[in-house]
């Protein structure tokens, strides 16, 4: 699956966590937030990586971000299944603790349809981007299944 989603993030200052975004989350429901089966961690060795851009890259907005997972399968949000999950991209945030639901807001972008890339449009500044893998109910697999990079956004 190689789905794509474009996210436009606008207004705000890097480092203050005050970003506005036009985000269409589709498919999230009250059931997906907090009710459901017991949380089951991924097998040891599962990992995610931001493959583009590189850590420390200087990019011009908008820019593409490409995700990768190993040791688990991508499955859209919904009913959790062992060994599966989907990506979340956190802007200016570190990993979400294991078992905690990844928030849905302008700095916690959900890719619940199984997307493996996005385009970000950020104001100029330095940002930490954290890729976080989570189960079908958006419960984080924790720091062990996350990957952070820093990017310097040059603007348009």
Entry summary:
The chain is mostly beta strands. It contains no helices and eleven strands.
Task: Write up what this structure looks like.
The protein is mainly beta and 156 residues long. The chain has one domain: Sandwich (Immunoglobulin-like). Strands 4, 6, 7, 8, 10 and 11 form a six-stranded mixed β-sheet that branches. It has a five-stranded mixed β-sheet with strand order 2-1-9-5-3, with no helix packed on it.
> By CATH's scheme, which homologous superfamily applies?
Immunoglobulins
Instruction: Give the number of DSSP strands.
Output: 11
| CATH architecture descriptor | Sandwich
SS field, number of helical segments: 0
At the third CATH level, what is the topology name?
A: Immunoglobulin-like
Largest sheet: 6 strands, mixed
Which of globular, elongated, flat, extended, rod-shaped describes the shape?
elongated
What's the domain count? Answer: 1
Taking all residues together, what is the mean pLDDT? 82
String of helices and strands: EEEEEEEEEEE
Using only CA atoms, what is the Rg? 15 Å
What structural class results from the helix and strand content? mainly beta
Distance between the termini: 30 Å
Question: In percent, how helical is the residue content?
Answer: under 10%
Per DSSP, what share of the residues sits in E-state strands of 2 or more residues? 35-45%
CATH hierarchy, class: Mainly Beta
Ranges with pLDDT <50 over ≥5 residues?
Answer: 1-34
């Amino acid at each position: 699956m190689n789905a794509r989603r474009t996210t436009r993030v606008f207004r705000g200052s890097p480092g203050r966590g005050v970003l506005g975004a036009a985000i269409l989350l589709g498919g999230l429901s009250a059931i997906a937030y907090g009710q459901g089966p017991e949380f089951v961690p991924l097998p040891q060795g599962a990992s995610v990586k931001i493959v583009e851009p590189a850590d420390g890259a200087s990019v011009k907005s908008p820019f593409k971000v490409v995700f990768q997972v190993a040791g688990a399968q991508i499955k859209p949000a919904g009913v959790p299944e062992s060994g599966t999950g989907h990506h979340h991209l956190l802007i200016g945030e570190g990993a979400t603790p294991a078992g905690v639901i990844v928030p849905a807001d302008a700095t916690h972008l959900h890719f619940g349809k199984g997307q493996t890339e996005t385009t970000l449009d950020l104001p100029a500044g330095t940002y930490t981007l954290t890729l976080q893998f989570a189960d079908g109910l958006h419960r984080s697999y924790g720091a062990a299944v996350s990957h952070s990079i820093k990017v310097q956004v040059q603007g348009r």
